[in-house]
Write a structure and sequence with these properties.
Distance between the termini: 60 Å
Largest sheet: 7 strands, mixed
Bound molecules: nicotinamide-adenine-dinucleotide
Helix content: 25-40%
Mean pLDDT: 96
Low-confidence stretches: 1-7
Number of strands: 20
Strand order of the largest sheet: 14-15-16-13-12-17-18
Length: about 500
Amino acid sequence: MNSLNPDPSSRLQPHKHPFIDGKPKKLLIGGQWREAVSGKTFTSINPSNGRPITEIADAGAEDIDLAVHAARKAFETTWRKCKPLDRQAILNAAADIFEKRYEEFAWLDSIDYGGPISRTRSGKRRHVGLLRYYAAQAVSLHGETIENSLPGDFFTYTLKEPIGVVGAITPWNGPVGNSLWKIGPALAAGCTVVLKPSEQASLSTLMLGQLFLDAGLPPGVLNIVTGAGATGAALAAHPGVDKVAFTGSTATGQAIVRASAGNLKRLSLELGGKSPNIVFADADLDEAVPGAAMAVFANSGQICSAGTRLFVERKIYEEFVGRVAEYGRSIKVGEVFDPETVIGPLVSETQLNRVCGYLEAGRSEGARVMAGGRRLSEGDLASGYFVPPTVFGDVRDDMKIAREEIFGPVISALPFDNIEEVITRGNDTSFGLGAGVWTKDLSRAHRLSRELQSGSVWVNCYQAMDPAVPFGGYKMSGYGRESGIQHVEEYLNVKAVTIKVS
Ligand code: NAD
């Protein structure tokens, strides 16, 4: 595999990309691009039209073993000993290249997972910012000195040490960002990485692998192994892995907890959600309508913290939900490279069928379809996996569409009468990732921010994400935090040193 082209944007065209060169994509192990030991590949499919994009190496247990050994060697011989300023310099060098070539990554993600180019492009500030934030963290790690009460004269301090080899496993719904969210903190902490991206969208992560080599990252510090669930399972169970950093579904998270038991790996789990988004009658409805709509429709609903349970105060329920439905009908579902497109396809046929199953469940349980409700099966987009923005009204708390994560552009709108009731109902879920509150009443906003059981609460906004602000789950949405100063701590061990001074 060649280094990235210095001016690739001149060669970018819809559904063509310099990185997609007709040759099967290889694994990055120990600084070398290599085929899977078995020689097997799998096919990456373009969700906009159902056609193959390229073949990708399908890593098996032997490849995982090679990658983990490469990561261990790099940890012991180079990265663990690399000075913070040098780790920072490499992360910043990667950020510089990434910023210059961002367009190339945006296009590749649009082709690979179906994110509209308007969305994949708009991630630039956040994604470059993530890398720079972790670069800053690399030189900000410190232990502490501790006053103790031991008899005699003792001096106690703590050291923060990198955990070791990290197995990182990511989903498809924002490929380049998901990968940076693992690579950044791990490298800043001094850990080495074996990263397995989603089989639905591996390409931008592979391109990142080359970018980090170009930025001067020593061989073996970042290894990328592609494949499906079995590849991830082999990584999660490997005894040479010290920590697994996982983002994905709750069911897979539970499998990873079980797989990690062998050597009691440290875990951080960013899992699913069914987040409440609560609109009071006193809210600025002109802000809340698009806010509530895009809290779910953005990325075709393929966002873990999407505000899919839309609770609306009863006295404005009909008007408000009607306006959200209208908003959903007004945004463009279309070809991903059309700059006007807001809603692209779902990532795969499997995901399409899953979402359509929920649309059917909503109808059969008696919810009222106020917008969308069926996949696009006619016209230019029929060969892709497109579902238009969908709003279900008259939803009850016990309906399947109000309880289970759909991961599609589907809002379940529920009326409520008072604050006590909406707190109870908002928290009546096994998940706890995000929550939204729309109101002008400050006391109510503070009260709900405390009472809602979720890792993030957004007031008069939704999914406002920043590299410095921690993000993660309560309950079955997982544990550990990404972003914020807490994130790098997930990759560090704390060692207490006590010295008898006299
Ligand atoms: P998934 O759990 O099916 O897959 C995620 C990753 O795990 C993929 O790379 C997959 O190959 C791998 N995998 C599958 N089975 C495995 C196993 N047994 N052992 C190890 N790895 C395995 O999830 P998905 O369908 O790709 O993504 C959607 C899910 O991710 C949703 O539930 C969504 O809420 C969640 N998600 C959460 C966050 C967050 O930050 N909390 C962010 C994005 C997505």
